[in-house]
Design brief:
Layout (H helix, E strand, L loop, with lengths): L14 E2 L9 H9 L2 E2 L1 E2 L4 E10 L7 E7 L3 E6 L5 E4 L17
Length: about 100
Amino acid sequence: MSQPLPQLPKPEFVLLSVEAPPEAPAQIAIDLGETGIPAGLIGYEYRLLSEPVFLGEISKRGLVAIATSGLFGRIAVDVSTGHTVQIPKDQPCRFSSSHVPSTV
């Protein structure tokens, strides 16, 4: 006879406000500063970067990387949509404050 599983506690995490790189649009910078991002999730699978990095050649307007995921992946904010995205492996990109992102 099967029994129902016990109720698990809801996950909890701490939000940290971060300063966006200068290339990030104003609204993304405001969101990262006011709303913040999780300090950590799922053990070592998600690790917050010491400071966000602008990735200019991965999407139409660029991404702001905020964390790593796994061995080579990154968690980022797509600056054109504001959505959080995962980049599953190391992508070739430039880390330059003067770079204007190209369209993909």
